[in-house]
Amino acid sequence: MYSQSSKLECLCANCGRQFLAYPSDVKRGRGKYCSRICWADPSHYFWSKVEQGTQEQCWNWLGAVSRYGYGVFSLQGKSIGAHCFAYELLIDGIPDGYDVHHRCNNRLCVNPDHLEALSRRDHIHRGDSPSARNARKTQCPLGHPYDATNTIWKRRTNGQRFRVCRICDNSAQRHRWASGKKRPSVP
């Protein structure tokens, strides 16, 4: 039997991580990978969990799903989004500060033709959340424009910012002030 000190330091051919291997494994060519996950091609595991269709159709992820409805793929002990893995595998790396957006709005889709890297701000704006719907609005409910001169940014008690139409806000303040003046004084 070999002791820990007789093991050789090797670099994994897949992930580049340092690991210890027995000299006999290195001699036989088995000391190239740090684990079974790196030994097997991760893309083989990935594509075995994808229901592929034509280029126009969604390629649905059949593996694990996060609580938010996105496909999850485990790679070298870390969970990553299945759509992110597909994007990096078939298109390019994801730049810092960018998210992978589903053009088809199907969170389980891993078709590279349906994925694009967007800045976090653009990604939120393309979504259907309340903040995205409000960010896309160009005018207040009364039709005044949300532009640089007519928009006031206020802050709620929880620190969250929101915008208000300056014309409507001034009108409401005038109304409050006028109604306050007309109140009878209480003896």
Short description:
The protein is of the alpha+beta class and 187 residues long. 28% of the residues lie in helices and 21% in strands. It folds into 3 domains: 1-40, no CATH class; 50-136, Homing Intron 3 (I-Ppo) Encoded Endonuclease, Chain A (Alpha-Beta Complex), CATH 3.90.75.20; 138-181, no CATH class.
What structural keywords apply?
two-stranded antiparallel ribbon; single chain; alpha+beta; Homing Intron 3 (I-Ppo) Encoded Endonuclease, Chain A
The fraction of residues assigned to DSSP E strands is 15-25%
| Largest β-sheet summary | 2 strands, antiparallel
CATH fold naming of the largest domain: Homing Intron 3 (I-Ppo) Encoded Endonuclease, Chain A
- Rg computed from alpha carbons, rounded to a whole number of angstroms: 28 Å
- Counting structural domains, the number is 3
Strand ordering within the main sheet: 1-2
Please provide the ordered H/E string of secondary-structure elements: EEHHHEEEEHEEHHEEH
Number of helices: 7
Mean pLDDT: 84
Q: Report the end-to-end length measured between terminal Cα atoms.
A: 99 Å
Multimerization state: single chain
As residue ranges, the low-confidence spans are: 183-187
Which structural class best describes the helix and strand composition? alpha+beta
The helical percent reads 25-40%
E-strand count: 10
CATH C-level of the largest domain: Alpha Beta
